[in-house]
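User: I'll paste a sequence; please echo it back and then give the predicted structure.

Assistant: Echoing your sequence first, then the prediction.
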Amino acid sequence: MRMHRVPHLPIPLLHGGVSHGALHSDWSFDPSVVIGVFGLIAAYIAWTGPLNRRRPGNENRPVTSGQITAFITGSLALLIALSPPLDDWADVYLLSAHMFQHLILLIVVAPLWLIGTPGWVLRPLTTRRTINAVGYAITRPVPAFVISNAIIVIWHMPSTFDAALSSLPVHVFQHLCFLFSGIIMWWPVLSPLPEWPRLTPLLQCLYLFLQTIPSGAIGAFITLASPGVYAAYESAPRLWGISLDVDQQFAGVMMWVIENAIYLLIITIIFFKWAAREELEARGEESIPAKHVPAVPR
C-alpha cells in the first residue's frame, strides 16, 4: 500500500506537508499546528496570569514559574513533533521517525502538560458529579494502565497504523488518542488534582515498572517481525540509505529499549527522592530532644 497525501483540513493541531526540499522536507509549517500550539500557550498564560489575577481569591490559585516552563516546553515539544522535518520524515519515509514522533507525544508532551497544570485549573471538573466520578475512575492506576495501553496497542496494530498513514483525519485522531493515552498513563504519577490523587512514591515505582511490559511487548513485536510489518512503509523511498528492515528494527528498539529505559530512570529518581526524604524525616525525629523528666525524690 502506497502512502498518499490528503489536503490539509482546518482542524487544530494537525500535521502535514510534502517531502521535497532540504533534508527531505519542504519546511512548510502547517498553519493549523502553529496556530493550535501557540493558541494553547496563549490561553494557558492568560488563564493562569491576567485572568486569574482579576478574579477574587487569586492568592489561593498560585502558579509557579516551574509550572509555566513545563507547560510551554511540552507545547513546544508538540510543535516539534508535528512539524517539519520530523513530520515529513514520519509521514513519507521512516517508521522510526514516526515512532519517535509518538514517543514525544507520550513521554514528553503529556507529562509536561500535567506538571505544568495547576490543580485549581482542573478543579471545576470535580464540581460536576458525573464528570468527577468518571474522571476519578479512569485516573485510578488499574483503569489508567488498561485504557492507556489498550489505546497504544490498538494504534500499533498494522491495520490501524496503515489506516492512519493513508488518511489525514484518521492520523489526526491517532495523535489525539496518543495525547489522551499519555495523560491518562501519567496521571497516577503526576496528578495535579488532589481529588484525583497520585500514587504513593513506592506504588508509582511499581506502576511505572509495569508500564515496561506492554511497551516492551509492542517493541519486541515490531523489532522481531519480518520487514514490512506496516505495509505503508514498504514502498516508501529509502531515506539516507536506511533499509526497510533496519528502519523497522530501530523503531521497535525505541519502544522496547529506549522507552523502557526512560521509565526505569524515572523509577530510580522517584525511589531515591523517597529514600532521601525518609532519611531526613528519620534524622529529624532523632534530633528531637526527649522531654525532661524530673527525678522522683526518695
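Confidence is low (pLDDT under 50) at residues 1-18. The two ends are 99 Å apart (CA to CA).
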